[in-house]
Design a protein that fits this description.
- GO terms for molecular function: zinc ion binding.
- Keywords: Calcium, Cytoplasm, Cytoskeleton, Metal-binding, Zinc, Zinc-finger.
- It is found in: Cytoplasm, Cytoskeleton.
- By secondary structure, the chain is an alpha+beta fold.
- Among the domains are: 71 residues; 47 residues, Wheat Germ Agglutinin (Isolectin 2), domain 1 (2-Layer Sandwich).
- The chain is 28% helix and 15% strand.
- It is built from 4 helices and 10 strands; from the N terminus they run ααββββαβββββαβ.
- The chain has a 3-stranded antiparallel beta sheet with strand order 4-3-5. It has a 3-stranded antiparallel beta sheet with strand order 9-8-10. Strands 1-2 form a two-stranded antiparallel ribbon.
- Helix 1 packs across helix 2.
- The termini are far apart.
Length: 193
């Protein structure tokens, strides 16, 4: 028998193989805690169900607005993981392989992938077929400049497009885009190592 100093009644320890008996014992010992956890689970289920219903309803709404909606083949939304993306596609200009569908573009920053910052600029692409050869439409995560390090953010290796300034400074896409280095300097854009 164990006596606790928290003011609870004494507790007899009993060995059991039955999980339901253990759950029942926990409810007797910590009824408020068990109730709080059950409420949190129920709220999480409600929230997930509500979000799934919103995505389904909004997808149907978008499709009903325009029956000739464009499909972006071989592109997966990094917010809801739907593939292919239907409707407008939003491509991150900083991250090498981040795309969002119309719905997830407007979702809160919580739903964005961990390697993507919610305030990165996104390029709206109405139809991917209009830009088949564009470097910005392609997945640039496979482009590794293994001999280069960004002089601003110190990223090594640089992944994606890198920029070499005439003065010898090397920049990654993100640092070049946000204007870290002098804009009057000429730069060479290097897409392949």
């Amino acid at each position: 028998m164990i006596h606790t100093s928290s003011g609870r009644d004494s507790i007899d320890l009993v060995e059991t193989d039955d999980e339901s008996s253990l759950a029942s014992l926990q409810e007797q010992i910590y009824p408020d805690e068990v109730k709080r956890i059950q409420q949190q689970r129920l709220e999480a289920i409600r929230t997930a169900t509500h979000q799934n219903n919103n995505i389904a309803n909004n997808s149907n709404f978008i499709e009903n607005q325009n029956p000739n909606i464009v499909t972006h083949l071989n592109v997966t939304c990094d917010g809801c993981f739907i593939s292919p993306i239907r409707g407008d596609r939003y491509k991150c200009l900083f991250c090498s392989n981040i795309d969002f569908c119309q719905l997830c573009k407007y979702e809160s920053k919580v739903n964005h992938p961990s390697n993507h910052v919610y305030n990165h600029p996104l390029l709206c692409i109405k139809d991917s077929r209009d830009y088949p050869q564009s470097m910005y439409m392609q997945n640039r995560s496979q482009i590794h400049h293994t001999q280069s390090k960004c002089n601003s953010c110190l990223r090594y290796p640089i992944i994606g497009i890198r920029y070499e300034c005439a003065c010898g400074i090397t920049l990654c896409e993100k640092c070049e885009f946000i204007g870290i280095h002098d804009h009057s300097h000429r730069r060479m854009k290097i897409a392949f190592p």
